[in-house]
Amino acid sequence: MWIVIAAVAIISIGGYFIFQSVTQDDHAESPVEEDTDQEESVPEEGEQQEGAEGEEVEERSASDHQSWQHIDYTWDTAPKFSAKDLMEPPTSNWITFGGNIYNGRYSPLDQIDTSNASDLKADWVTSLGSGYEFKYSGEATPLVYDGVMFTITGANNVSALDATTGEIIWEFRPKLAEGLDTLCCGWASRGVALGDGKVYVALLDARLVALDQKTGDVVWETQVDEWEKGYTITSAPLYYDGKVYTGIAGGEYGIRGYVAAYDANLGRQIWRTYTIPAPGEPGHETWPDDNDAWIKGGAPVWQTPAIDPELGLIYFATGNTSPDLDGSNREGDNLYADSMLALDANTGEYEWHFQQVHHDIWDLDPANPVVLYDVEIDGKMRKGIAQAGKTGWVYMLDRTNGEPLLGIEEKPVPQNENQKTSPTQPFPVGDNFVPQDITEEDIERDLPEDFEGEVGSIFTPFWDEPVTVKPSPQGGANWPPSAYNPDTELFYVLGNDNYFAYAHYAEDEANVFEEGKEWIGSVWQPVSNAPFRGTVTALDIKTNKIVWQRNWDTIAYSGILTTKGNLVFVGHNDGRIIAYDAETGEDVWEFMTDAGANAPPITYEIDGKQYISIFSAGNSLAGTQHGDKIYTFSLEGEFESLDDITDEDINTSPIQSDETEEVEEEQNAQDDVVQNGLNVYENNCLACHGAEGVGGHNGPNLENSPMLADPEALIEQIKNGSGAMPGFEDSLSEEEINSLVEYLQSLANEG
């Protein structure tokens, strides 16, 4: 009897601890908060269905998602990558968003170098079959493991491809939430994560999904948050140590930002760390104590974190305060918005922070991924972390403690009592990579003759009267990832240089908070008919000084790859992928694709052959030509130019895209012309101009535009575009343009 009792006790106690290891959350100290319930979904077998070419493909669905297997998966699946695996610079594989978990986007491959890069030709091209509509943006970094590429479109459709031929192995197409409308900056995904035989996908409607690496079937699905409240995800998740990490976007919607870690096998949340501290937590003293501004204070996480396994820390930068442009009700520095943060990767506990912009009222938040690097300074090896800001500076810190490596000085800045501005701002030692003020020469050269209003420089505040400043909310550096090359010891960053005007109007709708509605807090817009420019810059990692810089006549909006072959690869808005000499910035090679090359390039090697790949699909905020293709190049490639590539040479999905048909059916079902115009507006204009023409990210306020009083001028503008706005004559029908004009004029009448 005693033996039986002892056995039962042992089993009970053992079961309890096993249960605890599976279900218990690791609640950390400030500012870590509560866990959410796990939601799992089990895939169900579907029926056989014919593809576009009439071939039989296997369809499976789970939670209304669909996946199709086109060919057998004969490659190895990803293991539970060790810390060493994830720290290795990418060669045969590219297994994380940034190449490795340091986010450096550097490869030691050198088969392709400055001596032969001019011989690069297109090796294969694959059409992914989604993301054509203007609201979608192609920003994804593909991953490669054991000869298979995994990538995602702006519509959140995931594909597995043979990385040597581009042939599609399987496809996953999620069912996104009906009515999803809380995406401030266009529909985009910046990539997927890979590990333990699964592909991890963060969906725009704030769900995290794990797919079987061999089939694309759903393994588990977790609801991260509620998109209806403004919580969305655009960044690529990160796999490390049996966890999947993701940040939450939505700073324009009055959310409270956070980063969370999930069990990679179950989808269960392990920890969540809020980026706005609650009352009683360190940092909350930088928020008012007489209101609840902190609850909807913003600080989203736009980019994929980096990890140092030796220190056990995870690093990322936080986004804007909320409301973006109105600081009148949130006196203080507003931690931890606009900051670089380090947390314990296992528990989420706070370790250190550095705030780049105190009490931000200009939307100058750091959207660029952080980069980890080791470098010798003054005879001593230092563990560095660098992040390129919208301010136009690169911030270089000691990643062990968050202290500046090269010096950052707090300097007095102009003040505005209404905005409760911070008396000082951090000024890093070194060079700014974009202009930070507006000169008389700039005004004469760039601004229209009828331009009126005050101009300022970085950190010039505003209130009732418009003030035009540089840099703009577009940057400086925006989301396109930077890169670090340990051979050249240069840090490479893309920058934007344009004119933005700000003003605060107390009665404007942008100043009123409503859950699930965009909440900017003031009015902003680019200066009409002023130029948009970009820079590609190499800075010395030891001095933060510019070594070389290339200037573009458009914004730089793609991302950077650098290699041991002394090369820097970038994409251009006009569709080119370009290679520069990494030491001098001289042109080495370029290839024109059929759409805006607005995603970061990658490189990998299979059977001794080095490849360069880029997703060329266009971008809504960049106003570029849309497409859906992965272009892959090698020294043994066949196609010298786009003209050499026929339709028969392009890999296509056996599943016919129904995006166009769905849009047409929806529009044909609408009898109201204005409603048709609203549909056209949401798919083509909302990302830049905002809901109902207010609060967009590149376009002017439409409710008070004088052009709305002139239908012919408005039609001309829609067809041909101007400045940073693309023309839509080739993508919208006459009926769609006319209905769009009707809708825009209805906005003017309401205003």
Task: Give an overview of the whole structure.
The protein is mainly beta. The chain is 12% helix and 31% strand. The protein has two domains: 65-652, 8 Propeller (Methanol Dehydrogenase, Chain A); 669-748, Cytochrome c-like domain (Cytochrome Bc1 Complex, Chain D, domain 2), CATH 1.10.760. The strands form eleven sheets. Strands 2-3-4-11-10-9-8 form a seven-stranded antiparallel β-sheet, with no helix packed on it. Belongs to the bacterial PQQ dehydrogenase family.
Question: What would the principal axes of the Cα set say about the shape?
Answer: globular
Work out the radius of gyration.
Answer: 25 Å
The CATH class of the largest domain: Mainly Beta
Q: Taking strands numbered 1, 2, ... along the chain, how are they ordered across the largest sheet?
A: 2-3-4-11-10-9-8
* Main sheet properties: 7 strands, antiparallel
Distance between the termini: 84 Å
CATH topology of the largest domain: Methanol Dehydrogenase, Chain A
User: Helicity, in percent?
Assistant: 10-25%
User: Beta-strand level of the residues, as a percent range?
Assistant: 25-35%
How many beta-strand elements? 45
Architecture of the largest domain, CATH level 2? 8 Propeller
